[in-house]
Amino acid sequence: MRKLFKTTGKLLLILLAVLLVAGVAFAQLSPQLGGTPKQDYSASGHFQDGKFINPIATSVMTGSTLKMVQHMLFNKTPDKKPPGPLPMQFLDSLTITQKSPDLVRVTWFGHSASLVEIAGQNILLDPMLSIKMGPIGGVAPTRYNPRVPIAAEQLPAIDAVLISHDHYDHLDYQTVLKIKDKTKHFYVPLGAGAHLLRWGVPAAKITEVTWGDSVQLPGLTLISTPTRHFSGRGLTNRNSTFWTSWVLKTPAKRLFYSGDGGYGPHFQQIGAQYGPFDLALMECGQYDAQWAEIHMRPEQSVQAALDLRARVMQPVHWAAFTEANHAWNDPVKRAWAEAARRQLPLTTPELGQPVVLDGRPLPQQQWWQ
Q1: Distance CA 103, CA 163 (A)
Q2: How far apart are the first and last CA of the chain?
Q3: Is 286 left (phi over 0), alpha (psi -120 to 50) or beta?
Q4: Which residues, other chains included, contact 56 with Cβ-Cβ below 8 Å and sequence gap of 6+?
Q5: Strand locations in 202-289, DSSP E?
Q6: Beta carbons of 190 and 52 less than 8 angstroms apart
Q7: For the chain, how big is the Rg over CA atoms in Å?
Q8: Per-residue pLDDT of the chain (369 residues; tens, 9 = 90+)
Q9: Would the pTM count as exceeding 0.70?
């Protein structure tokens, strides 16, 4: 019996060693994981001991890892996925090429990816247009719909891609490969340029930004603003790149995109400095008590939009993937109720349905019911 235990123990050690070697090899060889930043970003004021930090104490996990695993495995939330494909309006790439300097149109593709047509330019937010998320295909979250409103290959020329952070549901390897040649420039948080470089994007087409940095395009100002989140695409590179939200400003219109992040005083600061906003695309989904400081509950998303002085809020970060233990439509139902209570106008387009900021009524149908 003792020999059997020794043999079993040796086999387990060998198995663990093989898994470790395979994991290291995968991390080194898989392009999905991106690159490794080489710079020291201490001068940014948000970098300490080799990692990026939030201005206020922020825990990625607000409970124990064991409790989180138990919650994910045994808390069987009903309706975590819709019973079938969600309503979708397909986008004709020809309509996007008909640019007008006065047109401000936002088309949401599901989750957080959106195309913003503004100041005669095409701006793509967090381009994740793949059907599966992440490098491990067998267990990767799968999009509710088998298609997106427009395939990455069909998109016309993109003037700027704005990245909020490097998580797989916001910065997608396959999408970047398909759009890198048709994109004039990528604007990314500090450190995230390393991923694009590994994927073949020329350095001349990449600008890294930190909070407060602004970029001037013809008729349009892009401003990196704070958010409260974290980063990382592997087991060993957490917080090696930064995270940001974005302001898009013309002389006539102001838009805000939250990226991901927990609630905090930064929303009031952004609202005071850059608001009011004609439209705020607010993270609203994939929340849980176990990570309460890095994702907002829907009621907090509404409060954040009010802090920003947004005239209209559009919930994003939902309707594509299941990443948390709540019903797939719980985010928008709760946001709808809270926004009504707080008298904040909400726009809720179907996937691919344009939101045009020209005074016409905005989409407000409760299509998720």
Answers
A1: 23
A2: 61
A3: left
A4: 228, 264, 265
A5: 206-209, 214-217, 220-225, 245-249, 254-257, 279-283
A6: yes
A7: 21
A8: 555 545 555 555 555 444 444 444 454 579 999 999 999 999 999 999 999 999 999 999 987 666 666 666 666 788 999 999 999 999 988 888 777 889 999 999 999 999 999 999 999 999 999 999 999 877 889 999 999 999 999 999 999 999 999 999 999 999 999 999 999 999 999 999 999 999 999 999 999 999 999 999 999 999 999 999 999 999 999 999 999 999 999 999 999 999 999 999 999 999 999 999 999 999 999 999 999 999 999 999 999 999 999 999 999 999 999 999 999 999 999 999 999 999 999 999 999 999 999 999 999 999 999
A9: yes
CB 117 within 8 A of CB 99: yes
- Residues in CB range of 145: below 8 A, 6 or more apart: 85, 86, 88, 110, 320, 351
Outline where DSSP puts E strands in the chain. 47-48, 51-52, 105-108, 114-118, 121-125, 160-162, 186-189, 206-209, 214-217, 220-225, 245-249, 254-257, 279-283, 313-316, 354-356
Q: What is the spatial distance between Cα 77 and Cα 59, in angstroms, rounded to a whole number?
A: 24
Coil vs helix vs strand at 269: helix
- The CATH superfamily label for domain 93-356 reads Ribonuclease Z/Hydroxyacylglutathione hydrolase-like (3.60.15.10)
Q: CB–CB of 305/330 below 8 Å?
A: no
Check residue 287 and report its DSSP letter: -
Q: Is cis: bond before 276, omega within 30 of 0?
A: yes
Structure tokens at 276: 């009011």
